[in-house]
Structure to design on (511 residues):
């Protein structure tokens, strides 16, 4: 055995001796460049690939042939710039850099070198905790990172960790098709709209800006190429203008956070005649939000609707109702119902929803805080008699044992349990985050009565629900479904972070 170990060691010595001193046989280095590149691509990071240059003169140039470089975590900015600026380095189809709490000067050191080398995708993620207050933001602001013009990049994804970013005042992103900006503190002199509009981004298809600061006044985008725009949590934007004749998907979420209930001038003016999908989780008053022709929209996500509330809640709900009134027919509608914790002294506002567009797919997100949601759901479903598919996302508070206080009004009027409702087109229903409460059992039983041609019901339990609780829920539904309806129950396994089908007890329908 000892002799065998010596032979293995001797072979390893020959394989790794390289041409240092001219001793031994370096078979690995004799492989073609393309095979060596495949080997290096399997290393964890680009820094590890660069370190292989110490093996031999043969290896000193191989890492420079890599088409992709990934640094996680990245070395300091100067060292990274040195790697990207290496004279033997080839053009890159992807550069991925991850830093933690980087300062502006570090990012500024390597980005120009990346712009010279890159002919593909750039991903930069600076991990940093968000500032806690406006004062802290100003204190931590520091100098802005000057973003160079990536003339040959195809996509750019930047998560700046709330570092300041100055956009390039000139240059054309000639090949750029997608840009995603997150946790950015925008700095002058160049505006976002100037950069992403035609002609500086002639091929841009996708634009995403999330959780960012500094877009205080106006974002004006004029693009003949954009197909998708997603804007979320931009803190203090005052006006949005889009001239996008080919835009297909628009998502606007909490970008006018500074506005009073009655702004003095328009806050949005959007021209997108080919728009098919609209998510508008924001104020909506036709006097101040001009959405143009929405005749092509088929997928709509609205602002939330408060089920029980005060007169002020009714003002908030008005934004959702006004948008719904813009449509006569949709393929898909996503609507969020919100229940407050204590509702007994509040007024039920569901009656304010007097109509819904004709829809085929309805997704209800219900933030119910443990309250029964059957009465409010019934109110909506009786306006959806052409419904084909129904999806429920249930989100109660974190306490699995939470129940309504005695005499809670959440299940009123109780007549919803006996009134006739025929959903004779509804074939598929899926319910997420089920907790096994009694009011959930009641609602599912009513679904079996209403949906006369239901083919499939799929229920996914909340990850905190035990298997015994889930089986108790199944037994409570026993005998309620029609023979032609397939019913499936899914549990979540925390240990494997996956779902599994709950097998039926004994034989039969799965109940």
């Amino acid at each position: 055995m000892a002799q065998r170990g010596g032979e293995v060691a001797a072979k390893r010595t020959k394989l790794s001796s390289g041409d240092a001193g001219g001793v031994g046989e370096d078979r690995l280095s004799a492989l073609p460049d393309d095979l060596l590149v495949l080997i290096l691509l399997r290393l964890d990071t680009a820094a590890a690939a660069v370190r292989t240059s110490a093996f031999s003169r043969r290896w000193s140039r191989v890492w420079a042939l890599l088409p992709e470089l990934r640094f996680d975590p990245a070395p300091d900015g100067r060292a990274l710039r040195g790697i990207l600026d290496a004279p033997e380095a080839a053009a890159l189809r992807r550069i991925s850099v991850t830093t933690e709490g980087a300062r502006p000067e570090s990012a500024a050191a390597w980005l120009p070198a990346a712009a010279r080398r890159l002919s593909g995708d750039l991903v930069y993620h600076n991990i940093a905790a968000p500032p806690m207050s406006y004062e802290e933001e100003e204190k931590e602001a520091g100098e802005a990172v000057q973003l160079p013009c990536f003339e040959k990049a195809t996509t750019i994804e930047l998560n700046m960790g709330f570092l300041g970013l100055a956009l390039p005042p000139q240059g054309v992103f000639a090949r750029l098709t997608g840009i995603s900006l997150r946790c950015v503190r925008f700095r002058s002199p160049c505006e976002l709209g100037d950069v992403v509009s035609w002609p500086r981004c002639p091929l841009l298809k996708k634009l995403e800006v999330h959780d960012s600061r500094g877009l205080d006044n106006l974002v004006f985008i004029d693009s003949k190429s954009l197909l998708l725009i997603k804007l979320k949590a931009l803190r203090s934007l005052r006006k949005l203008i889009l001239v996008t004749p080919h835009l297909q998907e628009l998502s606007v979420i909490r970008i006018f956070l500074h506005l009073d209930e009655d702004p003095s001038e328009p806050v949005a003016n959007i021209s997108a005649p080919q728009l098919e999908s609209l998510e508008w989780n924001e104020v909506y008053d036709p006097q101040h939000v001009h959405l143009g022709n929405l005749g092509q929209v088929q997928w709509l996500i609205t602002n939330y609707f408060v089920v029980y509330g005060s007169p002020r809640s009714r003002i908030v709900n008005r934004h959702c109702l006004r948008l719904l009134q813009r449509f006569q027919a949709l393929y898909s509608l996503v609507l969020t119902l919100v229940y407050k914790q204590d509702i007994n002294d509040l007024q039920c506002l569901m009656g304010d929803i007097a109509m819904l567009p004709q829809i085929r797919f309805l997704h209800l997100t219900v933030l119910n805080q443990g309250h029964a949601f059957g009465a409010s759901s019934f109110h909506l479903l009786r306006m959806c008699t052409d419904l084909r598919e129904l999806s429920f996302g249930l989100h109660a508070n974190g306490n699995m044992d939470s129940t309504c206080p005695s005499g809670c009004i959440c299940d009123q009027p109780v007549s919803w349990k006996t009134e006739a409702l025929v959903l004779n087109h509804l074939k598929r229903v899926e319910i997420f985050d089920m907790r096994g409460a009694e009011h959930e059992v009641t609602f599912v039983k009513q679904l079996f009565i209403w949906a006369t041609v239901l083919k499939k019901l799929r229920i996914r339990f909340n990850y905190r629900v035990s298997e015994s609780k889930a089986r108790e829920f199944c037994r409570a539904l026993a005998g309620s479904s029609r023979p032609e309806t397939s019913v499936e129950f899914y549990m979540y396994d925390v240990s494997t972070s996956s779902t599994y089908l709950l097998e039926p007890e004994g034989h039969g329908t799965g109940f």
